[in-house]
Design a protein that fits this description.
Layout (H helix, E strand, L loop, with lengths): L13 H12 L3 H40 L7 H48 L4 H5 L3 H43 L1 H8 L1 H39 L1 H6 L3 H27 L1 H25 L5 H42 L27 E8 L8 E8 L4 E5 L6 H8 L7 E6 L2 E2 L5 H6 L1 E4 L8 E2 H6 L7 H10 L3 H6 L7 E2 L8 H15 L3 E5 L7 H15 L3 E5 L11 E6 L2 E6 L1 H7 L2 H8 L4
Parallel strand pairs: 3-10, 3-11, 6-9, 9-10
Antiparallel strand pairs: 1-2, 1-4, 4-5, 7-8, 11-12
Helix pairs in contact: 1-11, 2-3, 2-5, 2-11, 3-5, 5-6, 5-7, 5-11, 6-10, 7-9, 7-10, 7-11, 10-11, 15-17
Length: 603
């Protein structure tokens, strides 16, 4: 289960994460500059609108006064032209804003696409030890929720930041052109608003980071409980599962509530200060109009500009929180992207095929003083050495935790050794490309794995270019052909990892057929018949005797009766080789293997 997180942490490298995010924005600088130019044009037009509206107000007020004084009255022609100009300005501005919004959305969507593409490529380069230390739900949360968070916030951030900055500059220019005194009065509240914004951001920042972490944890728990729902019900774990969910949900709720609460305080506090400034401007401006130093339309325009100035300042304050959310999500994504990858292939790898594409691999395997531990401080395989000639049938046995499965994972270079070396055909496995090395092996895991698709596609996974006839032959060898034909859609039956249409044993047979199809030089069976009944197991053993001819085979099994005919039996205990030999010789020694074998038949 996902570990319980005890401590709420701030982003460890805010500036570094922001810089890394900017590298994804850099290819779109041209579009950003274009949108900035368009936004400046739109903003200037919109900013000039209140000034024209103020002129209309002035003309109307002066016309009314003139009429009562016996003058010409209101100049409707001039007012009509001004109103038409204002209407054209706002229409053009709206069209420009639409184009700018399209540009910003395009940028955000492309960055989201690039992030997911990079994550997908990165995941394929990460060593298995990374996934051993991370819950699947947390990794999925980084790919989905966190990338969506970046994309959504980036869309609003890019557009609003640019729009707010241009608005602030333009509005200030118009305010100063009307009255520098009133401008100074209206700007008094800005430093106070900035202090409040900075304080709320500092408090809420850690809770936004915690929200992303807890969201990943709860996704991990849900994914784990859903994928293992059968065991959950079997062991009556529903209540504990709900308790764990409630615990994580409570932590997520607290983080979300506090982040929104503290960030939500910013707007009413800054809004209150801005309203105080607005009232002050109205009072002083009214006095200026009475004294005849300002036109009534100018004070109307100025009060509109004050409101317009407050809006982008408030947006900038809100954007500080948005940026915190985005950076917290980006940090989790970049932490994955910055993870140490598998060691690169050597520069001059060993060729596994000749000029005609025929495999040159003979299939001999050498373990030389192998040392390994998942934790370097806790070595579980100590100084293991063994030579296996081509075509030999090797069985690896021992109690749980002895290192049996670990040994074959090292053979396929899923993990790097802490010491010693492993050789295939007397070449260090580090001298092969990983993909070439793994193409040599056929592996049937203890847990049968099927992906969403037809049975035919699942079998062909072992050899993508296989013909249908080759698939049928592999299934006949694995004794699963008859079962498949009983299904309504036969080989076109849709199956998946979670399907309940076929049994676990039948799934295992399908994965064994997949290995038959690959026709590997070296075969690895990790508890391959653990989910198969005795009769089917015997059929598989018979067919695999034929498959083993001319191939090196490693069989890992707890049921020792299945490996009595093995050429070599390697007996492991706590990572050490304690005995080596065939079944008869090991039984004669009456040592560890003898006790292990007889323990399975004690009544």
């Amino acid at each position: 289960m996902p570990p319980r997180m005890q401590k709420i942490e701030k982003p460890k490298d805010f500036k570094g994460t922001l810089k890394q995010l900017i590298t994804y924005i850099r290819p779109y600088y041209a579009r950003i500059i274009l949108s900035l130019i368009l936004m400046v044009i739109s903003t200037v037009m919109c900013i000039y609108g209140p000034k024209l509206i103020g002129n209309v107000t002035t003309l109307i007020s002066e016309g009314i006064i003139s009429k009562y004084a016996g003058g010409a009255g209101i100049d409707f022609d001039t007012i009509g032209k001004l109103v038409l100009t204002i209407l054209i300005i706002y229409i053009i501005s709206a069209l420009i804003d639409y184009v700018v919004n399209l540009l910003h959305v395009n940028i955000a969507v492309n960055i989201s696409y690039k992030l997911r593409d990079d994550i997908s490529k990165k995941i394929n380069k990460l060593p298995l030890k990374y996934f051993d230390s991370q819950s699947h739900g947390d990794v999925l949360s980084r790919v989905t929720n966190d990338v969506d968070n970046i994309s959504n916030n980036l869309t609003s951030t890019v557009s609003q930041v640019l729009n707010s900055m241009v608005n602030i500059v333009g509005v200030l220019f118009m305010m100063i052109s009307i009255s520098w005194k009133l401008t100074l009065v209206s700007l008094v509240v800005i430093p106070l608003s900035g202090v409040i914004a900075a304080m709320t951001v500092k408090i809420s920042q850690k809770y936004f980071s915690a929200h992303s972490k807890y969201l990943g944890a709860i996704n991990g728990h849900i994914e784990e409980m859903y994928s293992g729902h059968l065991l959950v019900k079997t062991y009556n774990y529903e209540e504990k599962s709900i308790e764990k969910f409630d615990e994580l949900n409570e932590e997520l709720y607290n983080a979300a509530y506090k982040s929104q609460f503290y960030s939500g305080m910013m707007f009413p506090l800054t809004g209150f200060l801005q309203n105080v400034g607005y009232v002050a401007v109205c009072l002083i401006g009214g006095f200026e109009v009475i004294q005849g130093r300002m036109a009534i339309g100018d004070i109307q325009a100025f009060t509109t500009y004050v409101r317009r100035l407050q809006q982008p300042i408030s947006q900038v304050a809100q954007l500080l929180n948005t940026i915190q959310t985005m950076v917290a999500a980006a940090e989790r994504v970049f932490n994955l992207l910055n993870e140490t990858e598998e060691e690169k292939n050597c520069e001059n790898p060993v060729k596994i095929t000749d000029e005609n594409g025929v495999s040159k691999i003979q299939g001999n395997v050498t373990f030389e003083n192998v040392r390994f531990g998942y934790d370097p401080d806790k070595i579980i395989i100590n100084d293991f050495s063994m030579f296996v000639a081509p075509g030999k049938d090797v069985a690896i046995v021992g109690p749980t935790g002895a290192g049996k499965t670990t040994l074959v994972k090292l053979l396929m270079r899923f993990y790097e050794l802490n010491g010693g070396g492993i050789y295939v055909d007397f070449k260090n496995i580090r001298d092969y490309k990983r993909e070439d090395l793994r193409s040599i092996f056929g592996m049937v895991l203890q847990d049968a794995w099927l992906f969403d698709g037809t049975i035919r596609d699942n079998i062909r996974f072992g050899k993508p270019d296989a013909t249908d006839e080759e698939i049928y032959e592999a299934c006949r060898l694995a004794h699963v052909d008859r079962f498949i034909k009983t299904l309504e859609d036969g080989y076109d039956t849709i199956v998946s990892e979670d399907t309940s249409a076929i049994s676990q044993g039948q799934k295992q047979l399908l994965t064994i057929a997949r290995a038959f199809l690959k026709d590997p030089k070296i075969l690895i069976l990790d508890e391959a018949t653990s989910s198969v009944d005795t009769r089917t197991e015997q059929l598989i053993q018979d067919s695999m005797e034929e498959l083993r001819k001319g191939r090196t085979a490693f069989t890992i099994a707890h049921r020792l009766s299945t490996i009595r005919n093995a050429d070599i039996i390697i007996v492991l205990d706590k990572g050490d080789v304690v005995e080596v030999g065939d079944h008869d010789s090991l039984m004669e020694k009456k040592g560890f293997y003898y006790k292990l074998y007889n323990s399975q038949f004690d009544s």
